[in-house]
Design goal:
255 residues, alpha/beta, Rossmann fold, 2 domains, five-stranded parallel β-sheet, 5 strands, 48% helix
Length: 255
């Protein structure tokens, strides 16, 4: 199953920052956008929301919900979605598979080049650089393959002419952060830190209040069954973890 989407009118600043990075109508942006933050802060939810909102995003991969926690199925999965969203790439992807019988089990570098880069370079109808979202990179269980995956993205982006861009979500404490820091710098990569800001508190307050209000069924006493202080206490107790707030709401649905 895929993650849920953001509650309406929440995480606006981060979503606007992503939207600004996605927009290349005025000037070319970096090839990689890296968002990191602590566990439970809502990274997967943000990933799901922006993926469904922006047409430039043509493929997604969620390590958190994938049965395969390695990189073995990463690029084949992205290529399958790419072929569906941009039909002109389909024949080139199929040609790569026919020329390389073992491509689905090949090295990740070859998969990236033959399933993603070359099909996009062979497509002449695209007027924008498509974007792919990869969430939960820190949940990849193969450290060696993870390092190679990051290196291949950075190397491809260094020339500035990579025909695809990537949004990567990770936790801030994972070694991925150190790898990305040592592998590259802007303009290859842009960074957004997801933390417990005042806006995050306001968003969580809105999320809890809306869901608590929804529990007032027609015919019930119209007065709220909770106090504003109850919401404030829950927001402070969450320490910025939207996972905490969503768990509370889930308990209301299934007491």
């Amino acid at each position: 199953h895929s993650p849920p989407e953001c509650h309406p009118n929440t995480r606006k600043t981060i979503r606007d920052q992503i939207g600004k990075w996605l927009d290349e109508s005025v000037s070319k942006q970096s090839s990689l956008l890296w968002l990191n933050g602590p566990t439970g802060v809502g990274k997967s939810v943000i990933a799901k929301t922006v993926s469904g909102f922006y047409d430039q995003i043509v493929a997604t991969f969620y390590f958190s919900t994938s049965s395969d926690k390695t990189t073995a199925t990463l690029f084949p999965t992205l290529a399958w979605q790419l072929a569906r969203r941009i039909p002109d790439t389909r024949k080139h992807i199929i040609a790569s598979l026919k020329r390389n019988d073992s491509l689905q089990t090949s090295q990740i570098e070859d998969q990236f080049d033959l399933l993603i880069i070359q099909p996009l370079k062979s497509t002449t109808t695209l007027k924008y650089r498509p974007v792919m979202v990869i969430d939960g990179v820190d949940e990849c269980t193969n450290e060696e393959m993870l390092g190679r995956f990051l290196r291949v993205l950075v190397k491809a982006g260094e020339g500035g002419d990579m025909p695809v861009r990537f949004i990567i979500f990770t936790t801030h404490s994972f070694p991925t952060s150190d790898r990305l820091n040592t592998l590259c710098s802007y303009p290859v990569i842009s960074r957004i830190r997801i933390g417990f800001s005042q806006e995050c508190k306001d968003d969580m307050t809105r999320y809890l209040t809306d869901n608590f209000n929804a529990k007032n069924q027609p015919g019930d006493d119209p007065s709220p069954w909770f106090l504003p202080s109850d919401i404030s206490n829950l927001v402070e107790a969450s320490c910025g973890q939207f996972l905490y707030a969503s768990t509370i709401v889930g308990l209301l649905d299934d007491p």
